[in-house]
Amino acid sequence: MRKSLKFMFEVALCVCLLAGTALAASTVYPVTIDNGNRRITFDSAPKRVVTNCDSNIIELMFALDLDDKLIGYAGFPEYGNNVSPEYQERLKAIPIVAPGYITLEPLLEAGPDFFLSGYNYGLDIPAAGAGDAVTPEELEKHGIKSYAITESLVRVMKKPPVSLEDVYTDLTNLGIIFDVQDRAQKVIRSLKDRVAAVETKLAGVKTEKPLEVFIYPTWNAPDQPPRSTGAQAMPNALVSMVKAHNIFSDIDDSWIRVTWEEVIARNPDVILMLEAGNSSGEERKALMMKDPALQGVKAVRDGRIFIIRVEEGYPGPRAVRGLEKTAKDFYPELFK
Length: 336
What we know:
Layout: H1 2-22, E1 31-35, E2 38-42, E3 49-53, H2 55-63, E4 70-75, H3 88-91, E5 96-99, H4 104-110, E6 114-117, H5 136-141, E7 145-148, H6 164-177, H7 181-201, E8 212-217, E9 227-229, H8 234-241, E10 245-246, E11 255-257, H9 260-266, E12 270-275, H10 281-290, H11 298-301, E13 305-309, H12 319-330
Parallel strand pairs: 3-4, 3-6, 4-5, 6-7, 8-10, 8-12, 12-13
Antiparallel strand pairs: 1-2, 9-11
């Protein structure tokens, strides 16, 4: 009996030790977070959070099950965008505090203690103006902490090209800020596992002559000059991860203006269309297939125009879904 009790105790001890190693540390306040070129100290976890702009930002909160901290959001519904299907019911419980990009007055009226956004996503560039600018410095005067998503830091400092590491950094930092570090690490592990599964499928893809890709967001009207992405936008990272090459990756910027003449000259093998707002990717694809000026472009000639939602190309957990879809579209034979 004594041996049995000893054995049971040793098993229980091992289980506890293993469980302990699997759990991330709890946050001890005050805690200081590095957010690019500034450091933010939190005396406690924020309780009243407003987010602004694209759905990828509020999805960081949903992914960490922090709905109860959200008192409002602004931005993306105004532009015909939405959250992932799994979050749409949860979004209905969160009030909209302002249409489009939020300004200082309605933000202060909502009474947050934390603003989650990004530079040019709702946070203004520091020194953009005084009094009515939504800058971290102005918000601090009103007792509001702010966090800029890592991808957006390129607008205020030099940083490495945008990648999924930016998403993991944001999830890690928010896990610390809200004392949900174990939850954050679980989400990150799940995302990394999905990325690894894609990388395994693509292991045999030749890289000597990668697919040349034109990344084409559809928010401009068809008769206007096209937009695209340079090296500092998440779609560029996704294209690189599927062993292809963004034809405008030589431009060290994020969302850029180009011309159809440039697209024709660079002659992409593939067009990755980012369906945005209420525009129909299929309708835009049909227009491109009929456009006489584009008939010499390899992607058009071969019918290799693929569509994902623009939200799946934004920095956030949903970008992994964009990676999975892009890989399957580019190399369907590897995903049978």
